[in-house]
Amino acid sequence: MTTSTILLLIGSVILAGGLSYFQYYYKAKNKSKVHLFLALLRFAVYFGILLLLINPKISQHNYEIQKTPLVLAMDNSASIKHLKADKIAQATYKTISSNKDLQNKFDIQSYRFDSEFESNSEFDFKGVQTNIEKVSKNVKNIHKNKRFPVVLFTDGNQTVGSDYVYGYAQKTNVYPIILGDTTTFTDLKVSQINVNKYAFHKNKFPVEVFLSYSGKQNVNANFAIKQGSNTVHQQQVSFNSANKTAVLNLLLPANSIGLQIYDAVISSSLSEKNTYNNTKKFAVEVIDQKSEVAIISDINHPDISALKRSIEQNSQRNVTLLSTQNTDLSKYNILILYQPNATFKRVFESNKNAQLPTWVISGTQTDYAFLNQQQKDLVFKMSNQPEEFTASFDANFNLFSLDNIGFESFPPLNNRFGTVQINGGMTTLLGSKIRAIDAASPMLIFNDQSPRTAYLMGENIWRWR
Questions:
Q1: Please, what's the b/e burial string for 38-65 (b: 16 or more CB within 10 A of its CB; e: otherwise)?
Q2: Is 16 in contact with 46 (CB distance < 8 Å)?
Q3: How high is the pLDDT of residue 7?
Q4: Are residues 14 and 103 both part of a single domain?
Q5: Are residue 21 and residue 80 in the same domain, yes or no?
Q6: Domain annotation covers residue 379
Q7: 3-state class of 308 per DSSP?
Q8: Which of 121, 167, 202, 385 has the greatest count of CB atoms below 10 A from its CB?
Q9: Looking at the DSSP assignment, which residues form a beta bridge with residue 50?
Q10: How far is Cα 22 from Cα 35, in angstroms, rounded to an integer?
Q11: H runs (alpha helix) in 263-418
């Protein structure tokens, strides 16, 4: 309660008493006990009203001193005992946890971890795996928005989990106590392998390999990827005291269907104490699944054969040439509609049900009035005047990764002169120019919404091969 509130209450007592006295005793001739009772009752009424107006608030504060947590996290994995560091770990832990000064200053909390993290001060060092990331993740959740120290007992050999170095909150101070032999030995290691789960038969699939080296002398290592007794890739990798890591980006052939298991192996003439990390396995599921592409057109044009040859360079693609009379689209995965006109009406109607990804290629023989009726992505306002358009790469394109391979220097495409209005949801890959002047119309544009569509405004793309 504040000082001003107390003063108001005192004033209220005086005012209520004064008013009661004035009403019942001032100039009163008879001062009986009834007058006293009525005066007290009136005093209570006045004081109650004033008390409600003042509305005093009474608050009570309780103060409790909380000690800062001190987290003692012990690596309970079997590697501690293997390194003959279990007794030292127990003794060091006991020294810290029983220290009187630390007990007076901190709330000492004991945890142990291997593949899991738990509150426990008993250590048997029988854990099969070590996940140091569990420590950073769990203590951050237990003590949110607090500044506290962590004493981490570990040999540093993490077998599962993500990088724990950046897992702690910025307010957390970590004091590691390294257990075991801290001597640095020369060591080559296959650190990490990145690979897709699936690959297509008779294609090549990418593999990214991270190699690391611990040591001071120069070494020429032999890296190989083996499948059983067969070596599918082999190369030399050099390391020294300044260059201790290497990243290899490889393309491996997918010649056999099914689950393919590989071994990435690094070796050298060095005598290594730990050779277990010189090998890492990975697997890829090779599938044989072709995509069926239908090119539909009612005209003969060299673009059609050029598209077929280019697409079928990938053995997982099969191209079928159809006329507009073939409206059964059930066995196809992708449609290419080349220069559509009124004869394509049944094709567009069939695709409304099939909802297949479609690439529309227009040119000088396209019926743009019909095309405006069949789709809502673009509005074409074209004249009958033919024109040559050169491509201009749009660096803001982000639907997929593609570098500018010199589109501006490609031969021009032919189309009718006019304007193309874009209705929302489209992303331009190539714009168009007429004799180096921006035509303000797209040349190649994509719609990533289902069903996916793409539009190429211009014929004679065969000249781009």
A1: ebeebbeebbeebeeeeeeeeeeeeeee
A2: yes
A3: 82
A4: no
A5: no
A6: yes
A7: helix
A8: 167
A9: none
A10: 12
A11: 302-311, 345-354, 368-374
